[in-house]
Design goal:
By secondary structure, the chain is of the alpha+beta class. It contains two helices and eight strands, in the order ββββββββαα. Strands 1, 2, 3, 4, 5, 6, 7 and 8 form an eight-stranded mixed β-sheet that branches. A hairpin with a 2-residue loop joins strand 3 and strand 4. The radius of gyration is 16 Å and the shape is elongated. The structure holds adenosine-5'-triphosphate (ATP).
């Protein structure tokens, strides 16, 4: 059936680079799967988990949103931040979640609510993905 090359890249590092059997991406309009021979596609991603299968085993990666590009059996994901579920620091995510919840509950006009809600969402998804490892 062939394979797909997956590249998950952030401004600081390459988080995943390798051949996979399939991947499921957190598209802004819902999850979508990518198999070998997929048509070319460019999609915006939301904060979520990207799942991929390699050697028959599922792996999960946190994605802070960004873009997925599929072309000629290469799936490239560009994200502001990403980490493998195995390298998620749970204590850090819990602290980030608490900070964001306090900001949101504080009703302070100076707080950027959109930013606080995005930080909360990142922390919630990191904690969910850490449970899957
Ligand atoms: P924090 O407030 O804890 O920095 P954040 O959601 O604002 O969380 P990001 O801006 O998404 O953090 O990421 C900044 C960098 O820190 C990225 O390299 C990201 O991979 C890493 N990072 C953030 N939170 C965690 C975590 N809980 N475990 C592992 N790496 C993390």
């Amino acid at each position: 059936m062939g394979t797909l090359q997956l590249e998950v890249v952030t401004p600081d590092k390459t988080v995943v680079s390798g051949e996979v059997e399939m991947a499921v991406c957190p598209g802004i309009e819902g999850e979508f799967g990518v198999l070998p021979k997929h048509v070319s596609l460019l999609s915006a991603l939301k904060i979520g988990g990207l799942r991929y299968r390699t050697g028959g085993k599922d792996e999960h990666v946190f994605i802070s949103g960004g873009f997925a590009d599929v072309n000629n059996d290469v799936l490239t994901v560009l994200a502001e931040s990403a980490e493998l579920a195995d390298s998620i620091d749970t204590a850090r995510a819990m602290a980030a979640k608490e900070r964001a919840e306090k900001r949101i509950a504080g009703h302070d006009e100076k707080v950027d609510m959109t930013r606080a809600e995005a930080a909360l969402q990142r922390a919630i998804v990191r904690l969910q993905l850490a449970q899957l490892r």
